[in-house]
Specification:
The complex is a heterodimer of chains A (468) and B (749).
Chain A (H helix, E strand, L loop, with lengths): L2 E7 L2 E7 L5 H8 L18 E8 L2 E8 L12 E3 L1 H4 L9 H5 L9 H14 L5 H7 L11 H17 L6 H7 L6 H10 L13 E2 L5 H4 L1 H4 L5 E2 L7 E4 L2 E5 L4 H6 L1 H13 L6 H4 L4 H6 L6 H8 L3 E6 L2 E6 L4 E3 L2 E2 L6 E8 L5 E7 L10 E10 L2 E10 L6 E2 L1 H7 L6 H14 L10 H20 L11
Parallel strand pairs in A: 1-5, 6-7
Antiparallel strand pairs in A: 1-2, 3-4, 3-5, 8-9, 9-14, 10-11, 10-14, 12-13, 15-16, 16-17, 17-18
Chain B lengths: L5 H6 L15 E7 L5 E7 L1 H4 L4 E5 L24 E2 L5 E7 L2 H10 L1 E6 L6 H6 L8 E5 L2 H4 L5 E9 L11 E6 L5 E5 L4 H12 L6 E5 L14 H14 L3 E4 L2 H7 L6 E9 L5 E13 L5 H10 L9 E10 L13 H19 L3 H7 L19 H11 L2 H14 L3 E14 L8 E8 L5 E5 L8 H13 L6 E3 L2 E2 L14 H28 L6 E4 L2 E4 L2 E6 H10 L5 E7 L4 E3 L4 E3 L3 E14 L4 E11 L7 H19 L6 E2 L2 E2 L17 E6 L25 H13 L8 E2 L3 H9 L3
Parallel strand pairs in B: 1-12, 8-32, 10-11, 14-15, 18-19, 28-31
Antiparallel strand pairs in B: 1-5, 2-4, 2-6, 3-5, 7-15, 8-13, 9-10, 9-12, 11-20, 13-14, 16-27, 17-18, 17-24, 21-22, 22-23, 25-26, 27-28, 29-30
The chains are: A alpha+beta (468), B alpha+beta (749).
């Protein structure tokens, strides 16, 4: 079953009669015959297929870098999609020149993805410093250059813009003025402002929100079919009385950028850099991370330590369920047919101390061997509230309830840290797999619980020696 | 001078095979592969696949008109398994269908009747069972047995390195088009178009002149498309021949990771003897190469391991045993360094163990034993223009190695949780194919009547910048600006009997051939100019498109000269052939001069380990590299940096995990390569005054050597770990993942 789907592609409006679930990548390379966007992994791990998705909202268009291999084309409906061809000024422009001069491209296969990601950063950045720019390129893999030349080229571009573009002026127009975006895109952006992003959520039985896991796990079930979009980023993150309320469809990047959340739980927003990459975070939703039911979901571990409550909506109405009760077994959820996670609530607790730890083979854009989150609150120098979770050590995301109980009433010293670390390791039931041996994961959890005390309470050297 | 491809890359206009427009009537192919590491293949039931919509054909060995044999060095590998499957991912048939997806569904629908057989996955076990690809080899120099008595210290140990996935961004791809008269045109993402042509002809039962293989560029290769591109191209060609329609075969990432060969895992036992002052007296090593289920390039890779077993050091008494062991894993293959990194890791491990036992610093032992001019390698060649000591000393001086080591010692004495480490890594790498036959290349140059130039060679551009280097050579030899010259696609129709673009030799061989052809044309043009200007030939030269007499412009320009030559019926085309002189090797005596020259350099690597979490960062890598006189400095810097980072990945996060023959690290979410945020501060310096009369325009090959700088990171990490656990001895089992680090730090308590 196919549908007519319209969007602005680079400079002009296009309409395709295609299955709604077809990956945007395949529409770009196949139906639109634009071959500059590459495919190299189809699991969002290489960035070769990154495009910009400009979504018109309130008279503006916000451009996000996304991996087009994991995005159903229906989600592009009414948006402005920019590919490497759209960034091509027909010559070597100021965006491209430093990449040529620095040799920041060798075989060239990853290059379009890097340039599109970088363009996305230039459209959104709030500083011309290199750090955030490098972060925005964490989802792009290059096997040839070793990245040093890409870093140099990026630094040169930022150095140029620092002197030429005021951070406060309208960015899109400024980048067009400076030649970093072809001027033809200005008109295309205006076209997009006249479009309505699709809000169709009815009539089919395959709901897709971010798709960042569905399209990895079950591409054949979605790529050739009609799908129902669960609109992402509706509702966002807000404070409601004594609670922080997250829309289930809020993305990981929404969490990272949320001022409300940063004010309440700054350590939580800070931890989001360890989750996925920017193009993944722009699409991956909180609810998706939960229903994916991976025993190692990063957001799941965070929300579990915070003892979040889910609000589920389905044909049978609304019901509330603690996240801790959501996981019945490996990939088995207390989720009824047709039910979606509408929102997630956590209690506001002034003085709550939060930390998230994750160890993986690669620090960024990797799945953890073990992750763990801690949410602790002290009164009069003793722990009065303790939330502690762990991922990768059981068939389900684990709330370390025994260790939580142990912590109550104790002072946050090295002795407590070691007691908690040993207790957590004892609660873990890891298995051997590609992310590590069971022995390692248990040991790692012990060390990461110690790390919570290092980060939250500033303990350090005391944690080195194993107490007798 | 950057690669001429770059301007297309950054605009998104570079075309790879999967970007080429589908020819009319094109079909897609997908391989049916073995799910078993070792089994008797009793039957293939293709009926369920044939019944699926879109499936046009299922081809097995029975459909091969020629030989069902794709082996190169040894003919021991079937295109489609017949009676036995030897590894998971081994092709048994190919399904041809209207769409990519239908071909995959068809491949999944085929039913294999398999009877499981005992499988071997470990190289040492295979050797014990007599499962060798070829006879083991031993290099023997000096008198090792007698030398142990002269040693003050003798250390022994075991060292292992895991395999490595190439992870070229462009997966294996081919597009085969049947043409008139039974001719087949194959577009292949291969480093070895002649190998694809030869084996396609063999399998399809055609003479080689009816098979053309053409390559525009590769989206990365690193050795992974030297032999491993062949079966996919041959399958596409076979399917095109059988169906009469164009056929595209592009692997998806998962298929590519499961079915294609990677860097060989090695296991080794070493024994190193030294004097108290750190001078190496004797070294004996056993190298067990896990070759996988077929020879592929393993014997050649083993040979390079033999030649590089003593690293950048002079070892007067050495005995190097090497065995290529047949196991039920994918046939392992070429990967940047080609067996040298595995052997050099063992040597560094031995030095590390000696340093540990003797209480010396590792760099002290390294520095003491570096190759000096005239030192003899175990394979009998004497080193010439050795820059081992020069590059080590320059690195140690420029980067103040002593100060770095002191600073780290001070840091470690005052920090309980976070430890640092540093290592020096000297590299010596021999340049030339060790199989002397392959050290030849051809070039064909045309100058058109408007003065523009086409240069064709056998070199494959895969991001390493060989086209930029050939362009530099052609521009200098003809005396015309680079903008006038185009480096052509590589095709077997234009340049025949090419060697693979491999062994770092692409620019050396093809650049030399291109230079010869260009000079032949330039000489003819100078003769024309001599007549026209009435000036002796010897006084004329051409530079930057202008004819000079005694270095002064004559007013005669390139375009006019070319037209003038054409009107005088002078040949404006030239073909040239280059063969590296003076190289030979006798496998009977294991002595010879296998290399035209050696490349040298030293890296200083610094790391930090979080000893609470077992995680680490590579902070800084600084290198002094012997790059000769670079033909393209930007390209060489890119090779230096990129090679290093691949080596860092091999030593740290890139963990190829097999379980019962199954690759568990078969996706990008389970096999991690370095990313931008993990890249250390990198500083690359090239030696000044580094001539090299053995290669074109005094340049030096650079593709592979920098990879081995990455080996140093293992030992830097080990130092940091031992700073936390001074009671523990070094272990040599790469990669040093966060898991191994944490187990070292805390696994026993």
């Amino acid at each position: 079953m196919s549908r007519l789907i319209s969007f602005v592609l680079n400079a002009s409006t296009v309409t395709f009669d295609v299955p709604a679930g077809r990956p945007l990548l395949d529409v770009i390379r196949g139906d639109a015959d634009l071959k500059g966007t590459k495919h190299a992994c189809r699991e969002g791990d290489c960035g070769s297929c990154v495009v910009l998705v400009g979504e018109p909202t309130g008279g503006a268009v916000r451009y996000r870098a996304v991996t087009s291999c994991l995005m159903p084309v229906a989600a592009a409906s009414g948006c402005h999609i920019i590919t490497i061809e759209g960034l091509d000024p027909g010559r070597i422009g100021p965006l491209q020149r430093p990449f040529v001069d620095e040799g920041a491209s060798q075989c060239g296969f990853c290059t379009p993805g890097f340039l599109v990601s970088l363009a996305g950063h230039l459209l959104n950045c709030t500083t011309w410093d290199v750090g955030p720019a490098f972060n925005s390129l964490a989802g792009n893999i290059c096997r040839c250059t070793g990245y040093a030349s890409i870093q140099r080229a990026t630094a040169r571009i930022l150095g140029t813009l620092r002197h030429r573009v005021d951070l406060d002026e309208p960015r899109f127009a400024a980048l067009v003025r400076e030649g970093f975006l072809p001027s033809v895109l200005r008109g295309a952006r205006a076209l997009a402002l006249g479009l309505e992003p699709s809000t169709d959520t009815h009539g089919v039985d395959r709901p897709v929100a971010g798709g960042t896991d569905l399209y990895v796990q079950r591409p054949d079930d979605f790529s050739f079919a009609d799908v129902a979009l669960v609109p992402t980023r509706r509702g966002g993150i807000r404070i409601e009385g004594g609670e922080i309320v997250f829309a289930g469809s809020a993305t990981a990047e929404d969490m990272k950028r949320s001022r409300e959340l940063a004010a309440e739980l700054g350590d939580m927003t800070g931890a989001m850099d360890l989750m996925g990459s920017l193009p993944i975070r722009e699409r991956a939703t909180i609810a998706g991370n939960f229903v994916n039911a991976s025993p190692i979901g990063d957001m799941t571990a965070m929300f579990m330590a915070l003892d979040a409550e889910l609000e589920l909506v389905g044909d049978g109405g609304r019901r509330a369920l603690p996240l801790r009760s959501f996981y019945l077994g490996y990939k088995n959820l207390d989720l009824r047919p047709g039910e979606l996670i509408d929102s997630i609530r956590i209690k506001r607790r002034p003085g709550l101390l939060f930390n998230f730890e994750k160890v993986s083979k690669r620090t960024h854009l990797d799945i953890a061997s073990v992750n763990t989150a801690a949410a602790l609150r002290l009164e009069n120098g003793v722990i009065v509230e303790a939330g502690l979770s762990a991922g990768g050590v059981a068939p389900v995301p684990l709330a370390l309830v025994g260790t939580e109980a142990l912590l109550i009433g104790r002072s946050p010293d090295a002795e407590t840290a070691w007691a908690a670390a040993h207790s957590a390791a004892a609660e873990a039931k890891p298995i051997d797999d590609v992310r590590g041996s069971a022995v390692y994961k248990r040991l790692l959890l012990r060390q990461l619980v110690l790390a919570h005390f290092q980060v939250i309470f500033g303990l350090a050297d005391e944690l080195v020696e194993v107490p007798a | 001078m950057s690669s001429p491809d770059l301007e297309a890359h950054v605009r998104g206009t570079s075309r790879y095979i999967d970007d080429m427009a589908d020819p009319a009537g094109m079909l897609h192919a997908a391989a049916v592969t073995s799910p078993s590491p070792h089994a008797e293949l009793r039957a293939i039931d293709a009926a369920p696949a044939r019944a699926l919509p879109g499936v046009v054909a299922v081809l097995t060995a029975a459909d091969i008109p020629g030989l069902n044999q794709i082996g190169g060095i040894i003919q021991d590998e079937e295109l489609f398994a017949t009676s036995t499957v030897h590894f998971i991912g081994q092709p048994v048939a190919v399904v041809v269908a209207e769409t990519f997806h239908q071909a995959r569904l068809g491949a999944r629908a085929c039913v294999l009747d398999l009877e499981e057989l005992t499988a071997i996955f470990d190289a040492r076990e295979a050797a014990a069972a007599g499962e060798l690809i070829t006879a083991s080899r031993t290099l023997d120099t000096g008198d090792v047995d007698a030398a142990w008595a002269d040693c003050d210290v003798v250390v022994e140990g075991r060292a292992d390195t895991a395999g490595q996935e190439h992870l070229y961004l462009e997966t294996q791809a081919a597009l085969a088009i049947p043409e008139e008269g039974g001719r087949i045109k194959v577009w292949s993402s291969t480093q070895a178009p002649t190998a694809v042509q030869r084996i396609t002809a063999r399998v399809l039962g055609l003479p080689m002149n009816l098979v053309e293989v053409e390559v525009t560029r590769l989206g990365g290769a690193f050795g992974g498309k030297e032999d491993q591109a062949t079966p996919w191209a041959v399958m596409a060609a076979l399917a095109a021949q059988r169906t009469g329609r164009p056929v595209r075969l592009t692997l998806n990432r998962h298929e590519d990771m499961v079915c294609t060969g990677k860097r060989h895992p090695y296991s080794s036992d070493f024994k190193l003897g030294l004097k108290n002052d750190g001078a190496i007296v004797a070294y004996e090593v056993h190298l067990w190469q896990n070759a996988g289920a077929a020879a592929d390039l393993s014997p050649a890779i083993l040979e390079r391991s033999l030649f590089h077993a003593t690293g950048a050091y002079f070892v007067p008494n050495a005995r190097i045993h090497a065995a290529s062991c047949r196991t039920n894993l994918i046939p392992f293959t070429a990967f940047r360094g080609f067996g040298a990194p595995q052997a050099m890791f063992v040597m560094e491990a031995a030095i590390d163990r000696a340093a540990e036992v003797m209480g010396l610093s590792r760099s002290e032992i390294q520095a003491k034993n570096l190759l000096s001019e005239g030192d003899e390698f175990p394979y009998g060649m004497r080193v010439k223009r050795s820059r081992a000591r020069r590059s080590f000393n320059e690195a140690a001086g420029r980067f103040d190695l002593a100060a770095v080591e002191n600073e780290i010692a001070e840091h470690n004495a005052t920090h309980a949780v976070v430890k640092r480490g540093a290592a020096a890594m000297p590299v010596c790498f021999g340049i030339s194919f060790t199989n002397a036959v392959l050290n030849q290349a051809g070039a064909l140059v045309h100058v058109y009547t408007d003065g523009s130039v086409n240069v064709s060679t056998g070199a494959i551009e895969m991001g390493q910048g060989v086209n930029a280097k050939i362009l530099a050579v052609a521009s200098a030899a003809l005396g015309v600006p680079r903008e006038r010259i185009r480096i052509e696609n590589t095709t077997t129709r234009t340049i025949a009997n090419t060697s693979p673009t491999a062994a770092s030799s692409g620019a050396d061989l093809n650049g030399s051939a291109a230079g010869l052809a260009c000079r032949a044309i330039a000489d003819r043009l100078r003769s024309v100019a001599a007549e026209r200007l009435d000036t002796p030939f010897d006084r004329l030269s051409i530079a930057d498109g202008v004819v000079l007499a005694d270095g002064e412009p004559t007013g005669l320009e390139w375009n006019e000269l070319v037209w003038n030559a054409y009107t005088k019926r002078v040949n404006l085309s030239a073909h040239a052939h280059y063969a590296t002189p003076g190289i030979w090797y006798d496998k009977e005596t294991e002595q010879g001069e296998p290399f035209a020259y050696h490349v040298f350099g030293t890296a200083i690597l610094e790391v930090t380990v979080d000893c609470l979490r077992g995680t680490s960062t590579v902070d800084r890598v600084r290198m002094v590299h012997d790059g000769g006189r670079s033909l393209a400095p930007a390209v060489d810097l890119g090779q230096l940096e990129g090679g290093l980072v691949q080596g860092l990945g091999w030593m740290t996060m890139e963990e190829l995990v097999f379980h019962q023959g199954r690759n568990l690290s078969d996706t990008l979410s389970t096999y991690k390569i370095p990313d931008l945020l993990g890249t250390p501060v990198i500083e690359g310096h090239f030696l000044d005054d580094a001539d090299n009369p053995k290669a074109v325009m005094q340049s030096k090959a650079i593709g592979e050597p920098p990879f081995m700088y990455g080996i140093g990171v293992y030992f830097a990490l080990l130092d940091a770990l031992r700073a936390f656990r001074p009671d523990r001895k070094g272990v040599y089992d790469a990669p040093l993942t966060p898991e191994k680090a944490l187990m070292f730090l805390h696994g026993d308590r």
